[in-house]
Amino acid sequence: MKRLLLCCLALAVSGPALADVSLLERIVGGFSRDSLWRNVQERCLIPPTPSHADCVIVDRAQGFVLYKDMIGASHYLVIPDQAVAGVDDPRVWQDGQRNAWAFGWQARDTVGKAVGHPLPDTMLGLAINARTSRSQDQLHIHLDCISERARDFLASGDIGTQWRDLKFNGKPVRARLIPTEQPSLSVNPFSLVRQDVGGDIGDRGVFLTYVKPASGAAGFVVVDEPVDKAAGGNGHASDFLDRGCKLGRALAPAQ
Known about the structure:
Elements: H1 2-12, H2 16-19, H3 21-29, H4 35-45, E1 55-59, E2 64-68, E3 76-80, H5 91-94, H6 100-106, H7 109-115, E4 124-128, E5 141-146, H8 148-156, E6 164-168, E7 171-179, H9 189-197, E8 204-211, E9 219-228, E10 233-234, E11 241-242, H10 246-250
Antiparallel strand pairs: 1-2, 2-3, 3-5, 4-5, 4-8, 5-11, 6-7, 7-9, 8-9, 9-10
Helix pairs in contact: 1-3
């Protein structure tokens, strides 16, 4: 029922309203904030052999599911195989053996398959929204192409190896580079943000992508987007992603 309602809402609007997918998520998500977790359980975790198309990867050894989101052909969610409320749940940093970001990054080729051709690592990203900006109370990290605005931000942000205060879409964010020539994620962005802010990170959205500039250091960029109502910050880090994958679809497949 929720899927049908969301689709109807999407068809009923156009222009800028359609672009605000997060608004639709919040409207529909308000009816049941545990529907995502129930769907993952029923489709991916309870069956002896998951067969539902939304269960793209079910890895009980690592403790995560890659789940197909209902909006966006290339949009996926990284979800723990146990109940974890969200970025505000202490287990996201207490369990050092389970890195949801690394799991999602390892599965990034799924986005290219959905688009129809491989995509460069620099065009892919992961994001989680702050407690007040999410529609579901089960931790889920979004995986998709980065948006055009994110691309421009990364190109002009002067991001170094120390946290730097910047603006994205007029909102306050902080960003830092984790240098590495190989796109293999060995750090946990949850831990990086928490170590710097020194406590609860429930009111912070987090975004991750890989950069490889023509000049300068390659590596992972971690963006911390705090909720700051006075400055217009809402912690909605998934704004760095594009459910339509415009950049990826415009990229000509290799011949």
